[in-house]
Amino acid sequence: MMMWNLAKDNKGSLTYERVRELFNYDEISGNAYWKIDRSTRRKAGQLVGWLSKEDGRRYVEIDSYNYRLHRIIWLWKTGSWPMYEIDHIDKNPANNVWSNLREADHSQNNCNCGPQSNSTTGVRGVTYSRGYYRVRINKNGITVYEKRFKTLEEAAAARKEAAIKYHGEFARFD
Fold first, then answer.
1. 118 near 135, Cβ under 8 Å?
2. pLDDT digits 0-9 by tens, 139-152
3. Residues 123, 155: contact at Cβ < 8 Å?
4. Which are the contacts of 66, defined by CB distance < 8 A and separation ≥ 6?
5. What is the pTM of this model?
6. Class of domain 113-170
7. How far apart (Å, rounded) are the C-alpha atoms in residues 8 and 67?
8. Is-contact 148 128, C-beta < 8 A?
9. Residue range(s) of every CATH 3.90.75.20 domain in the chain
């Protein structure tokens, strides 16, 4: 299992204590608020960070380093940096409600996404070629399930069953 590169998080040696000193986190709303005035632009009680137009995630600058807010929230809640990626269960990268966050390896995190934008079938893991619908499920870069079907309905049903078997709680059907 590939672990997250912790050097990405340890820029500037940000600690649990420092994060707790800087802001409060509301696990119901998923928002973090500054505890203290940080500058003329950042006031106590103000929402932490900004929303990136590129990837839809919230980021925060702390001590001249930019961090993904969901990783800082993980540190704030658990007392340690996540070992892997943080998956947003509802696929909304801006939703940092605590119940929406879970640690996931890269393969698990990739399971929790919809069909690619160039999908011809509209069903994740199902392609159409030469008169058949092919279902392919990969886990950790290895094909663990592959079958062909005559109809999209059969392929979608088989894909759902296989996804549950191989991806468990990370399986996605939309």
1. no
2. 888 899 999 999 99
3. yes
4. 59, 60
5. 0.78
6. alpha beta
7. 9
8. no
9. 6-104
For residue 171, give both structure tokens. Answer: 């399986």
pLDDT at 36: 86
Q: Are 48 and 71 contacting, i.e. CB atoms less than 8 angstroms apart?
A: no
| Structure tokens that stand for 23 in this block | 């802001």
What are the tens digits of pLDDT across the range 4-31?
A: 555 566 665 799 999 999 999 999 999 9
What is the DSSP code string of 81-92?
A: --SSEEEETTS-
Q: Are strands 132-139 and 50-51 parallel, antiparallel or unpaired?
A: unpaired
CA distance 174 to 171: 10
The residues of the chain that CATH labels 3.30.730 are 113-170
Q: Which CATH architecture has domain 6-104?
A: Alpha-Beta Complex (3.90)
